[in-house]
């Protein structure tokens, strides 16, 4: 196994999670060079599919389940934007000098209030480079409900999903325009409307 995974555990074992094709996911990998190590940040829980998928690459996989953090679930109104940025920096635990090639956001930005989303974008900025790409989901209409799901990568063109192990928290769906504005230097490169009203997004660093 070529990957160095942080942490080294993944929830569950063999997967029977439903699989869906993805129009935009392949674009995360089309610039990966076989002889170069890639650095991946996954802000969701460790799932076996994603760990297995990146084991085929020479990669460093940083997994930081921000969905379970009290900061996000209970304390967003207790801190201003600067304090949230500092808190996200601590929670991400990225070594100094890390440059992220791929950031897997899933639907996490939709659980953040605008000031928290801006704080996350600011916390990520030191770890971005011009080639950084991201993937996630927003909504075309802010009234679109979100399902309480955890996601993983099965193939370069397919994702799986399963019910989250965490109770669903309050969510604040952002349009893709608002999300792109709040994330700062990560801008939406392409979007694809899904049948359930979500918008799949490919993001690109603009530094």
What can you tell me about this protein's structure?
It is a single chain. The chain is built from 5 helices and 10 strands, in the order βββαβααβαβββαββ. It is globular. It has 207 residues and is α/β, with parallel strands linked by helices. The relative contact order is 0.21. It has helices at 48-54, 70-73, 81-92, 114-124, 176-182; strands at 4-6, 19-21, 38-42, 59-63, 102-106, 133-139, 149-155, 158-163, 186-193, 198-205. It has a 7-stranded mixed beta sheet with strand order 1-4-3-5-6-10-9, covered by helices on one side. A 3-stranded antiparallel beta sheet has the order 2-8-7, covered by helices on one side. The termini are far apart.
Give the topology, please.
Layout: E1 4-6, E2 19-21, E3 38-42, H1 48-54, E4 59-63, H2 70-73, H3 81-92, E5 102-106, H4 114-124, E6 133-139, E7 149-155, E8 158-163, H5 176-182, E9 186-193, E10 198-205
In short:
With 207 residues, this protein is α/β, with parallel strands linked by helices. Helices cover 20% and strands 28% of the residues.
